[in-house]
Design a protein that fits this description.
Number of strands: 10
Number of helices: 11
Distance between the termini: 46 Å
Strand content: 25-35%
Strand order of the largest sheet: 6-7-8-3-9-10
Largest sheet: 6 strands, mixed
Structural class: alpha/beta
Length: about 260
Amino acid sequence: MLEVTNLETVYHGVLRVLRGVSLTVPDGGVVALLGPNGAGKTTTLRAITGMLDIHEGKVTKGSITFDGHNLVGKHPEAIVRLGISTVMEGRRIFPELTVEENLRAGAFVAPPAKLNDDLDRFYTRFPVLAERRHGPAGYLSGGEQQMLAIARALMSHPRLLLMDEPSLGLAPKIVKDVARLITEISKDGVSVLLVEQNATMALELSSHATILETGKVVLEGASETLKADADIQAFYLGMGADKTSFRDVKHYRRRKRWLS
């Protein structure tokens, strides 16, 4: 479905961020994109969605294809019409608009005849949104705003959903709700590319994962395999917090084995 091959990007004409990134999201799959802050995860999503220009960035090498369509150089609206939608980091709802106005905004490329049915569907799925449909979205709690952001993205009937840090800033109970929702979205036939700092959650939800560091892929493979990898456990799953990078962990563990 989505193929990113040898992707390189530059900001402001000089700052190279992605350095040959490749990843694949299969039809109906959930793929996790992991890495520390500054690794290039959000830049990867911006490149896929055509949003790099807004941030004075551009693709300088490589390709991005979605069902055979070249996405490089396409306008963001055209990419949405192809079937790709995004839940941005920090939710990015329209706080001054009502809940329903936010949902209607998400349906701008969807068939108008389906609008009322879609609203009813998401009000059933998210009862709190139904209760607050006529109130300002900015008055929702953080978890409710995340549910609204996800529902708004789904209003365009995407076949691929990009999610940028959906658990960020949420209470543990709400994180579990978001994780359950991602599983439900996948079962509905929507592919998901999940960017997350919460590696435990991401590896549990995904079938495959790619790990970035300083704009390069340092490891990729089946999520079950990565969960069992000692270096992944050390850096991403709660141990080795004193190490500043995944490479530091690998070097430390190799040195420890050599000294023993």
